[in-house]
Amino acid sequence: MQISTTGIWLGFDRKGVWTLGRLEGSVESSAETMPSSWVTILDTDEKSLRAGLGAAAERFRLSPENVQNLVPIDDVLTMAIRSRSGHWVERAVHWMSNRAISREHLEILQELSTAKWANQRVRHIARRLVKVSE
C-alpha cells in the first residue's frame, strides 16, 4: 500500500518480509534490521494506515488482522522519538495520543517530558500522556 504522498510504499517481499520504498527506486527490507525510513508511516494517522493495510490484505486474500498486527508500530514510535527529529517526535507523540501507552513508551515519554532537546509543545504532550497513563 502507498503510505505517503511522496510515493513510498509498504508491503511484503516474496519471502514475506516487510519492505519499504519507492516502486521505481530502492526498496529497504526489514529482514535484519528496521530501516529508519519506517518512520514515514507516521505521516498518516494510525486509523488510515490500518484501513489501507486492511484493504490491501483483503485484495491479496490475507487476514487483515494478521497483516495489521505484523506492522511493528511500537518499534517505529520508539525509533521516531529516539531520532530526536522534531518532525518525527511530534508525529510519534500524536500517534501515542490516540492509543494505549506501553510500559516502554511510558518510560520514553517520561524522559521526553523533560528533554531539553525537545520543543515545549512535545514536552507538554509527553507530560500529559504520562499523567493520563499513570
Secondary-structure blueprint:
Blueprint: E1 8-12, E2 18-22, E3 27-29, H1 46-59, H2 64-70, H3 73-82, H4 86-96, H5 103-112, H6 120-133
Antiparallel strand pairs: 1-2, 2-3
Helix pairs in contact: 1-2, 3-4, 4-6, 5-6
Summarize the structure.
The mean pLDDT is 89. 49% of the residues lie in helices and 10% in strands.
Describe this structure in words.
The chain is mainly α and 134 residues long. 49% of the residues lie in helices and 10% in strands. The chain is built from six helices and three strands; from the N terminus they run βββαααααα. It has a three-stranded antiparallel beta sheet, with no helix packed on it. Helix 1 crosses helix 2, helix 3 packs antiparallel against helix 4 and helix 5 runs antiparallel to helix 6. The longest helix is centred in the middle third of the chain and has 14 residues. It is globular and about 45 Å long. It starts with 7 loop residues before the first strand and ends with a helix.
